[in-house]
Write a structure and sequence with these properties.
Layout: H1 2-11, H2 18-22, H3 30-39, H4 43-53, H5 62-70, H6 80-93, H7 99-105, H8 111-120, H9 130-139, H10 143-152, H11 159-168, H12 174-188, E1 216-220, E2 234-237, E3 264-265
Length: 279
């Protein structure tokens, strides 16, 4: 087929269109995409135009970002798929000036737009969005939106968010329960499962839970001889003290020598004490 296409192209004295030969066409230039964005009747054409423009130099100009921000509003753009594309574009730009537009999109009447807006805040931390994310996690009628909100809430360590995620453990959707569980583990550093009562020491505290301090742990590789998995991969650090290396070993299986232990590796974000050159 390729050979026939080449022959057909050369026979007429014209250079063959390689994009047609190999099935891959170049994107239209930005000026053509802009024309499609504002004048095309098809919402899908406008959606594709804004997505392709987000990959060009066009989006680097402030006036063009303003146009995209305006398109997140239903009063400007009637199609939800185009509004959602505008929200994703603003999230990709990652300009704090437009975070409020993404937050406003969480109140859109289309679940498509609300999902993309909530999903954006998993990577963008914007404190004014916390209350709306909590509302979506608890009350939105679309489980994908609730899931995205639960995933984003792990970035907001507050008592209200903690209680919201605990309530979401009882959601009828498994994906929502899974997302809230993952966020709780990320926020606290512990895994107490999917039962909200396991996250409080006193059942009377249900609904009045307060976010515990995040557990600090150090990580160590399992020794080469630990084929049975008798050692732990993490050791908890309490009150800023150094953990006892023997706490990571189950001695019930027999005696072990200290030289058999692999070295402990501290988390990368923890600063190491400076060495004393006088030694």
């Amino acid at each position: 087929m390729v050979g026939l296409s080449l022959v057909a192209g050369c026979k007429g004295g014209k250079t063959p269109d390689w994009s047609d030969v190999f099935g891959k066409k170049k994107d239209p230039p930005p000026d053509v995409l802009v024309e499609q964005l504002f004048n095309a009747q098809s919402p899908d054409t406008r959606r594709i135009a804004i997505e392709k423009l987000s990959k060009t130099y066009w989006i680097n100009e402030e006036k063009n970002r303003e146009l995209v921000a305006q398109m997140t509003s239903r009063s400007v753009e009637k199609s939800p798929i185009v509004r959602a594309a505008a929200v994703r574009t603003l999230a990709k730009v990652n300009d704090p000036k437009y975070f409020d537009k993404i937050a406003d999109a969480m109140k859109d009447d289309s679940s498509i737009v609300r999902f993309d807006a909530a999903d954006s805040f998993e990577l963008i931390i914007y404190p004014p969005a916390e209350d709306e994310l909590q509302r979506l996690a608890l009350d939105d009628d679309n489980e994908d939106v609730r899931t995205a909100a639960c995933q984003a809430l792990k970035n907001y360590r507050s008592d209200d968010t903690y209680r919201t995620l605990l309530r979401c453990l009882g959601d009828e959707s498994f994906t929502v329960r899974e997302a809230s569980h993952e966020s709780l583990v990320a926020m606290t550093g512990v895994d107490n499962g999917y039962d909200p009562t396991k996250w409080v020491s006193d059942p009377k505290q249900l609904g009045k839970e307060t976010l515990p301090a995040k557990r600090k742990v150090i990580y160590r590789k399992r020794p080469w001889w630990d084929w049975a998995g008798v050692t732990k991969e993490t050791v908890e650090v309490k009150d800023g003290s150094q953990p006892n290396i023997m706490d990571s070993i189950d001695m019930s299986g027999g005696k072990m020598k200290m030289e058999d232990l692999s070295p402990v590796r501290v988390e990368k974000n923890e600063k190491q004490p400076a060495k004393d050159d006088s030694e």
